[in-house]
Structure formats: structure tokens, C-alpha cells
Amino acid sequence: MAASCYGVSSVLGRSPVDTRGGLNQLLGASNFVLPIKRNLKFRVRSSAEQNDETKEPAVAPPTPTPIPPKPKVSTDFFDVLAFSGPGPERINGRLAMTGFVAAIAVELASGRDIFAQVQNGGFPWFIFTSALLSVASLVPLFSGQTPESKAGAVMTSDAELWNGRFAMLGLLALAITEYIKGGALVSL
User: Fold this and answer.
1) Which are the contacts of 137, defined by CB distance < 8 A and separation ≥ 6?
2) Which of 36, 97, 113, 122 is placed for a possible disulfide with 167 were both Cys, Cβ 3.0 to 4.6 Å?
3) In terms of DSSP H, where are the helices of the chain?
4) Looking at residue 98, what DSSP letter applies?
């Protein structure tokens, strides 16, 4: 009982000899004095720890399995340009980014909308730029490099895909807006 009173008094934060109430009044004792043990040593165990007698010998950790090398990237023409291959969306995104910036720059410089730009000599530039960027995008893919292997901290391959997607939508929105408006969207 003394140990339980000591435990309760330590939880309550009062000494068991406190005559102002507390544990003495709770137990109904008037001058009840508990022996206080000092220098108690506690041993903390986890619930999963076993007794010393039943401990099993330590088992050596398993050896890590070697990571298999990454499969070789296919450089076949039809694999690179397949619908889900690395080429089509990346090339279209790069062309759209270049086209959107060029269309806005020419509108700011000359005041012509995107349709007037194509009709007034822009079509050969479009063909030349498309061919140049397509070849420049396909050469690394045919040599076995992946876009992810050249990605940095800021310029990731996913960021390039998302920027290309937004540029495709922006170029389409620019063409539709200028068609409905009947003139350049941006003019000086």
C-alpha cells in the first residue's frame, strides 16, 4: 500500500505528509507519513523486448539484392515515334512553344494576326523550323538517350511536357480568339 500511495502522490504532485488535504484526507489519515525512497532505478523496456532467458540469437540482416540494370532504351523508329513513345508529344510540345513565342513576337512587331503571318510568307519558315526542331529532338532519342537522363533540378522532363501542353493550348486559343475577333490579339 505504501508503494501505491507513493505513486499516487507523485502523480498528484503533493507530498503524502501534506496536512492541507490531498492524499491524507483522501485516505482518512491524520498524521500519515510514508517512507520516501530515493535513488530509485527504473528500467524501461519496450513491449516487444523479451526476457534475457528467452532471447534468441541475433540474425544477420539479409544481404541486399543487387539492382538489375535498366533495360536498354529502344532506338527503333516505330518505338520512338509510337503513340506512347518519347517522341511525338515532346516534339509537338517543343514546336508549340516555339510557335507560340514566335506568333506573339511577330504580332507585337508587325501587328499581324497568326493567319496573316502564315499567308504572308510564314509558311516556309514554319516548315523549316518544324523540320529542324524535329530532327534535333529525334537525334538524341535514336542514339538511346532518354529525356529523363538530361533533366536537371529546374528543367525536368515533366516540366517540359507540361509547358509544351500549355503552349499547344495557348496556340490553339490564340488562333480561335483571333479568328473570332477578326484581327490580332496583341497590337501596339
Assistant:
1) 87, 90, 91, 94
2) 97
3) 2-12, 23-27, 77-80, 88-110, 114-117, 123-142, 157-181
4) H
The answer to whether position 59 is within a domain reads: no
Which amino acid is present at 142? Answer: F
Which residues, in sequence order, are CB contacts of 154 under 8 Å at separation 6+?
none
Q: What pLDDT digit, counting tens, does each position of 116-174 carry?
A: 888 888 888 889 989 999 999 888 888 888 877 777 777 788 888 999 999 999 999 99
Instruction: Calculate the alpha carbon distances from 79 to 68, 97, 142 in Å.
Output: 23, 24, 10
Pair 164, 89: CB distance under 8 Å: yes
Q: What long-range pairs does 114-118 form, CB within 8 A, spacing at least 24? A: 114/174, 114/175, 114/178, 115/175, 115/178, 115/179, 116/184
Give a yes or no: residue 29 inside a domain: yes
Question: Using H for helix, E for strand and C for coil, what is the string for 129-170?
Answer: HHHHHHHHHHHHHHCCCCHHHHCCCCCCHHHHHHHHHHHHHH
Same domain, 84 and 8: no
With beta carbons less than 8 A apart as the criterion, state whether 40 and 3 touch.
no
65 within a domain of the structure (yes/no)? no
Q: Is the pTM of this model over 0.85?
A: no
Is the same domain home to 89 and 14?
no
